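Lab channel / #folding
Pinned by the channel admin:
"Please post every new chain as: sequence first, then the structure tokens as a reply. Keep commentary short and put observations after the output so the thread stays searchable."

First post following the new format, from NK:
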Amino acid sequence: MSLTDILSPSDIAAALRDCQAPDSFSPKKFFQISGMSKKSSSQLKEIFRILDNDQSGFIEEDELKYFLQRFECGARVLTASETKTFLAAADHDGDGKIGAEGIKFYINRRRF
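Reply from TO:
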């Protein structure tokens, strides 16, 4: 399974275009534009599984900087500031990594 089996390729492209410039990435906006914020809990778990590059069950800081590249290999790397901000926002238990529950928690608390 790939991300485009769950998310619209045009929505992914629009989300990536929105954050092309360094330090322009907003997780909330990215999740909204890409359609992630509208997905079910099971779909979010599958998206997380795909994003978890080393399949450890967590996305650590060193993986998180490549977050956009998991959606498109030519996308830019997140800046150190963007990575730290994203990690701080989605790491709901403070362990320095994001689990599937952290992503779901972050998205769910920001839904309209």
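NK: The radius of gyration is 13 Å.
TO: also worth noting, The first strand starts at residue 58 and ends at 60.
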